Amino acid sequence: MPPHRVDTMPERYDQSLQFARDAHLPPEAPRPQPTCAWPPENVALLERYAGWLRGGGASEFVIRTIYIPMAGHVLGLALKPHPQLNLDVDLPPALDYVIAKGVGEEWTKVCRNALAKFRRFLMHTRGQMEIKHKPYNLVANTQGLPTWLVEELTCYQHLMQRNWRPARLDENIHRFWCGHLRLWRFLVEQRGVQELSDVRRKHLYDYAGHRLDLGKAVPTVNGDLRGFHGFFGFLQEEGYSVPQALLRLRGLKEPDRLPHYLTDDQMRSLRDDFENRLVQAVHPYQRRDALLDLAIFYLLWQSGLRRGEVEELRLEDLELSRRRLSVRNGKGMKDRTVYLTDTAVRALVAYLAVRGIGPTDHVFLYRNQPLSKDLIHGRLKAAGERIGIRLYAHRLRHTCGTQLLNSGCPVTSIQKLLGHKKLNTTMIYARAHDQTVEADYYAAMSRVEQRLELAVDQENANALLPEAERVQLLALVDQLAEPELSLDRRLGLVAVMLGLLQNPGMAQVEMPTVDRERSAWLPPPYPLVLAIAEAD
Predict the structure, then answer these.
(1) What is the pLDDT of residues 294-330, one digit of tens each?
(2) Which sequence positions are flagged as catalytic?
(3) Rounded to whole angstroms, how far apart are CA atoms 82 and 45?
(4) Domain assignment of residue 522, given as a range
C-alpha cells in the first residue's frame, strides 16, 4: 500500500515517531507520546508554530524535519497544556531524549538550536521578550590597574551611555572599555603611571607611535586619543588637577579622504541583481528574503539611512501614505524625517505583506527576530560579491548624498535628510564627484587646446605628422623628462616641439642653442611667446 499522505503537522510528528531511530535508547529512558495523548491545545499549538516559522522565512523542509520534531518531543514528554510549561524545566528533557538515542555531535547541535527556536516561540506567545545581555567582565579586564582609575572610568561610562542607543548598549560598553584600557595599560605597564600626576604629554605621543608601529591606522589612534581627552575633561569637572598641556593635546594628521560612492552603472547592476533574485525566487522563504533585501536596499540607497537606523526602524515610524518615515534616536540621539520614493514605498509594502510575526514592532525581522547587527552587512557583502564590487551599508549612503548633490538638490537640504550635524560633513560629497566642476573642467580644457592648436584630428594625425617629425618629437619629449634640465633649455625644447606641430612636413628643425656663459635669460622663439600670450 502507498504511504499515508501527511497533511498536518501533528500527523507529521506522529509519523516521525514511527520511524524514530531509537534502537540505542536505554529501556528506562522516557519516550515522547504521540499527539493522541496530548492536550488538545498542544495539538493546535504545533500548527501555529509551523505558521510562525513560515512567516519568519524558514523553509518547509527544515520545519518538517527539524523544528516540528523537536517541538513535538517537548510536548510529548511534558504532556501538560503549553501555558503550564516551565521553560527552564520542561524543555531540556527533549534534548536529553535526542542525546540518549546516540546521535552524532552535529545533529545534537542542530537539535539544540531547534529547541532554542521553540523556546523563543513560547516566549512570544506569552508576550515575553528574549533578552540577550552579555555583561562586560570588568573585574577580569581591569586587573593590575589603579583602583581610582577603574572607579573613575566606571563613572565616566555611566555618563557616556546616556547617549547610547539601548540596542547597541552592550556593544558600546565593550568598545568604551577596550579603547580606554588599551591606552591606560600602556601608560601603567610601559611608562609606570600610577597617579594622574604621573601622566606626561610625551607618554601619549609614545603610545601613538607604538600603535602606528603595530600597523594601526591613524584614525584608530586618534580615536583612542579623543577618548583620553574626553576622560581628562571629565576628571577636571570632578575636581582633579589636570595639566592644561594634556587637554590641548592635538591628534595626528589624518588623510583627507573622499567618500566611496558607487557609479550609476554599478548602482544599475546592483539594483538589477536584487530585482532578479526576487523574480527568480521559487520557494516562499526565498521570496521573503528577497523582499527583505530589496526594501533594505532602497532605504539605504534612496533615503540615505544608516545601518543602525534601518535595524531600529519601528512600524509606528512609517507613514507610507505620505511617503516618509521618522528616524528616532539617530546618531547623536537626534530625530529626523526621511522621505521615500515611490519605488521604496512599493518595496516596503511588498515586504510588510510577508514580514511575519515577531516579539517587537521592528519593521525588519529575520527568522522572527529583530535584525542582528551583522545581518545587513553580511547580505550586502554577498550582493556586492555577486556583481564584483565591495559593498557595505555606508557606501550606499555616500552614493545617496553624491547623487542628490549632482542632481541639483541644495546642500542644506541634503544635510537635513542625512542627519549631519555640520555642513562641512555634507560638503565632502561635492568634493567626491561634482558633475558641474567636471563639465566646467572639460569645457575649459577644450578651449585651451583649441587656442594652442593642439586638438589634432586623430584620423589625420599620421598625414599631418610624418614619421621623421614624430621620431624627433618623441626624442624631444624624452629630453624634457630629464630632472636636471634648466628652464631656458626647456623653453627651447618646447619651441622646437611647437614648430614641428605647427609646420609638419618641413625640414628637420635644429635645436636652439643656449649661451651658457651669459647669466641673462634668452627669450624663446616668437611662436612660443605668442602662444603663451594668447593663453593668458
Answers:
(1) 999 999 999 999 999 999 999 999 999 999 999 988 8
(2) 306, 331, 394, 397, 420, 429
(3) 8
(4) 456-535
